[in-house]
Amino acid sequence: METFQVLRKMLIFRFCQLDSGGTAVLALAIVLPAILLLFLRKGERSRTSEDEDGFPRGPWRLPIVGNLPLFLSLPHQSLAKLYFEQGHGAIIGLHLGVQRAVVVSSAALARELLLTHDKAFANRVHFSFADHLFYGYGRAVILSAHTPRFIHLRKVYMLELLTARRLHDMREARYIEGRRLLHHLRDYSGTAVELGAVIAEMNANAMGRLMQSKTLDEVAPELPELIRAMQNLTIPTVGDFVPAFSLLDIITKIRMKKLHQRIDLAFDSILQERSRLMETVPPEQLPNDFLQCLLSRKQDNDDEESISPVEIKAIMLDLFLAGIDTSTSTVEWAMAELLRNQECFEKLRKEVDEVKKGELRYITDEDVQKMPYLYSVVKEVLRLHPVVPLLLPRISSEECKIEDYILPKETMAFVNVWAIGRDPKIWDRPEDFYPERFEMRETDMKGQDYELLPFGSGRRMCVGIRLGISMVSVTLANLIRFFDWELPPNQSASSINMSEQNGLGSGMACPIKAVPYVRSGFLGSSFL
């Protein structure tokens, strides 16, 4: 009955995520007897961990659900233990219900998968949340197959929003929100603040300015909260791996659809506000922002260059989701690590002060280019706490061979960048926060050095890497420059909870609180 007990735990975990009241109990009462009967008929049979068709070996698996229990809680850590502690290789074969999958946990195999076989693994997996929570598989860039449409939309991102010149032209929009954050912290000087919350608000409004020249507070104030709510639902369902159990996902899909409807209304309000502006203002006076670029391509015909209204909203959701949560999480982890490592904190502050010596102004992109230790700190944070520890999974479009293994068509692939970042074969003191390691090696995180891949690599590499690094670096430098930081009473550096929340991302399970004090030399500064 071991399989039954494991599946029961999986279902309880899923339903408790959705509803803490009677719905979970009712659902379990309905489905568990049927599942129990199914297992009684099939019997409890052990499965070998080795296949005869050249597929990589993996851990022992249960009937029907296979290795899905590994994904119940912090899967990147569970899978890393298989490699580091239980003698499995750097490529592990899994059976997730009816779906075959592999996990690679070494830099060499990551290079083979993401470079040698990049074309074969260029497609994203089509999970049900893409259809019920997002705007559909293939509507934007993050959740899409590698099609000509994907290539066109990615080109729009790169040419209209994410070029170096475009980001330079729009940098002041981000700086305005950065200064607002500093003013907010000054007003709360001496009071504990939840760092993740205030940084997320800044990032949300900065992305709003980049996208549509206004903060979300002005047009869609509820959107940041809705996007945060997506984190608990942007995960595969039971039916994604065991189609026979799709009935168990009904409550999940209802929750997804309800949240999507609220998100869709928020984006409708943004588009309606811009439509009213376009009706009353001459074209030459319209904002030169990304939303206007998308609307200029909006047509009602089948022109390949056109972008439909649904695609516009899907693109906006992609950008807000990626731009708010990822940068926020990285800055929060950085502050936690620096507060736990005062020598690193003081070394970074010394560098920041030296670059801005004699100036009281806000630190900009041009300034952080002169701060190599700051860049080392950011790399070290992303080594230990990559934004998406398993990257977003890919799925193969053809059979291919990695090492001596045959991966058939439609094999799902995960790259465990969390494990690669902690591999003792690559890193000295892999569990320690030690930014100085990057002063002695040329490793970068732009997709060419496979031992450090927080943004991925190849055709599906994150298009927002330049913007993400800028937002994190500038925010962190200003927090260190203008404020002294203390932990709340009764908390020490060693007691900071560094555990991770469960999900596709790696945010902090317990949001960190810290007390800002304006540094004595900046008491009269306006942070200009």
Automatic annotation (TrEMBL):
Keywords: Heme, Iron, Membrane, Metal-binding, Monooxygenase, Oxidoreductase, Transmembrane, Transmembrane helix. One of its GO terms (biological process) is secondary metabolite biosynthetic process. GO terms for molecular function: heme binding; iron ion binding; monooxygenase activity; oxidoreductase activity, acting on paired donors, with incorporation or reduction of molecular oxygen. The chain crosses the membrane at residues 20-40. Heme binds at residue 462. It comes from the Eukaryota. InterPro entries: Cyt_P450, Cyt_P450_CS, Cyt_P450_E_grp-I, Cyt_P450_sf. Its cofactor is heme. Belongs to the cytochrome P450 family. This is Cytochrome P450. It comes from Ceratopteris richardii (Triangle waterfern).
